[in-house]
Every structure is written in C-alpha cells, then in structure tokens.
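Escalated from tier 1: nicotinamide-adenine-dinucleotide holo job.
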Amino acid sequence: MDTKKTIALIGCGRISFKHIEAFVKNAERMKLVAVCDPRLDRAQAKSAEYLKALPKAGVPKAYTDYRDMLAELKPDIVTIATESGYHPRIAIDCLKAGAHVICEKPMALSTRDADAMNEAALKAGKKLAVCFQNRFNAPVRKLRAAHEAGRFGRMLHGMVQVRWNRNEGYYAEAPWRGTWELDGGTLMNQCTHGIDLLQWMMGEDAVRVQAQTRRFLRPIEAEDFGCAIVEFKSGAVGIIEGTADVYPTNLNETLSLFGEKGSVVIGGLAVNKIETWRFADAAAVGDTEDKVLNPDEKDPPTVYGFGHEALFRDFVDAIEQNREPLVSGERGKKALEIILAIYKSQKTGLPVDLPCDFSTLEMKGEFDK
Ligand SMILES: NC(=O)c1ccc[n+]([C@@H]2O[C@H](COP(=O)([O-])OP(=O)(O)OC[C@H]3O[C@@H](n4cnc5c(N)ncnc54)[C@H](O)[C@@H]3O)[C@@H](O)[C@H]2O)c1
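Tier 2 regenerated the structure:
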C-alpha cells in the first residue's frame, strides 16, 4: 500500500519552484498529484518540472480551477502559492474539502481573514501551516536551540533589518505586487519572514507597536520602507527596519538578539550566516565564537534559502503525529498582526496595542494624500 500523502499545488508562479523542489526532496513521504493555475501553461510547466526530477512518478494533473481538483482528487495536502490576497478563500475551501493546508506567507492580509482560516482548520480537524521557511535555516535552528536552553538569560532587545532591492521590473512582472488588496508593501511581503523570526525569539507576545512607513521610490500603492518599535510582554524591545529601496541590489537580512548572557547576529543575504555568537557559557558548552563562525560560508543561491523542504517534512510529521506544525496558522498570524499594527500606527500616527483588528484595505490611499 502506498502510504505517501497525495499533494496538490495551487498557484504556479515565481515561488512555486521551491514547492516543487520540496515535493521532490520529500518524495518518500509525498506524491504530487495535481498542479493548478488559471494559466494552464504555468500549471503544465510545473507538472513537467516535477516529472523531469522524478521521471518515474505519475504525471501531476493540470487544472485551471482548484475547486475541480478538490472535487476530483481529494488530495491529503494542498500547498497554496497564489497572490497573498487570495490565500484565505482558497485555504478555507481546501480545509472544508478535507485537505490539510500549507499556505505561503503572509497567510492573509487582515486579522479577521487569518482568524477565519484558523477557525476553518479547527472545525475541519485539519492542519494549517504558514511558509515561514527561514525558521528552518540551519543557523536559525542553532539559535533556537540556544534560546530554548535558556542561554540568553533575560532577553533585552532584538532587531531585524531587511535591506533589499525590489526594482520596478519586479513590480511590473506581476501587477498584484505592492497593492493593498492582494499584497501590501515590503513589510508584508519581504520583511514578514524577519518579523516572524524576531517575534518568535522575543517571546511571541508583542503588546504594542509604534511605526513609520513610507512609499519612497517604487510605483506601488503600499510602502517600500518601514521601521517600527515593538514592545513585548516581558518589557523587551524589538526594532524593525525594512526596505525594498536599497541601491543597487540586495544587501542583507539580519537578525540580532541581545540577552543578559548572550549576543547573536545572523546575517548574510537572508539570515543564513552566523556573524556573532557570544554566550556566557560558551566555554562550558564548547561552542565559542571562533568554533562557530565560518568565514567561507556562502549564501544560498536565492533569498528563499532551503527551508521549504524541512517545513513540508515537519508538516507531514505533524499530521502523522497529530501535533501542530512548527509554524501553525496560529503562530503564522503573529507576524501578520504585528505588520497590520505597524500599518495602523502609520495611518493613525499613534502607538497601537495588540491584539488589534486591521486590514491592508484600510490603508488604501495612505500615500496618495
Ligand atoms: N516563502 C517565500 O519566501 C516566498 C517568496 C516569494 C513569494 N512568496 C509568496 O508566494 C505567493 C506567490 O508569490 P509569487 O511571487 O510566486 O506570485 P506570482 O504572481 O509569480 O504567482 C502567483 C500564481 O498564482 C496563480 N493563481 C491566481 N489565482 C489562482 C487560483 N485561484 N488558483 C490557482 N492559481 C492561481 C497566478 O495565475 C500565478 O501564476 C505570495 O503569497 C507571496 O507572498 C513567498
């Protein structure tokens, strides 16, 4: 009997190659049976990409309407990689149809939609995960292990910097990018990973946000720059700096954490390189900075890193062990809520308390005043 989970991909655009790669690398656990995109040529291209890597696998069937696919194939798992604004409707349809769902980030563009997705998963008794794959980067896992072992002592402050370049060509390639209805700005799209990591390490309990965002250069509705101060329940403080405007190309994505007894900086192009590793117990634990730092380490070939494969594996483990995936829908909502609070703070000019109820749609016209 074939015990592999059947899986379907919905949305066959720019990021979908990472999904195909993750299906192929997890081929002993899952089998791609369908690819869906209203643009049939894109769906067929993904089917061919999968078959090229796994010539003996069956041909994943191409659909232009995911609802037909759900009715016909009833896959165990669906991964969603469509425009962000479409995630909630599609995820809820898939959960109601009995599939577990892995959804690209951000899971939704409003707190209400995120709540509706989490409620749908609960009601259906299915798992929901959000693609914050950087949680699975090797340096981030090492950092998390140190964090969980209590090596930082009291956490004082942390910072995430996302200094990237998304030029006019990037926005022209897909007109939904940078719109309030389907995407949001650079904080919601590019910086959401770093904001997720920051809040995860600071205790997952942000209570207040104060922010400034701008649309400096790009021909979009939403922001191409944002900065914020995030207060956590413990009193620890997080600082966020994110931009799509760095001249001339991507510079760095860096997470810095400062505790009473530890300082760690993970940088490189997309939080994949340990730059500082100092702990009071380093000698006792045997991981002094000179042993940990590797000056020859190279960035992965793209900013997406290698995390999708591990995240998809964790998801299958979660189904089989009937536990929550590492980045469950509830956890995936936390970064989203911080970003929406940042937007609200920009709109109102005031600090915003969490939990908050906000949608990107409430930002329409913000930079056209
Ligand atoms: N995890 C990451 O690092 C990462 C990186 C890039 C993008 N993303 C996210 O992935 C998502 C897609 O981004 P992209 O850059 O690949 O976008 P894209 O525009 O390149 O691709 C989106 C695709 O979804 C298709 N689509 C639209 N409606 C559909 C439907 N009802 N059924 C099936 N397909 C449908 C579109 O035709 C298009 O081919 C976004 O949410 C984005 O934020 C995540």
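The pocket of nicotinamide-adenine-dinucleotide is lined by residues 10-15, 36-39, 42, 66, 81-84, 86, 104-105, 131, 133, 174, 189, 304 (CB under 6 Å).
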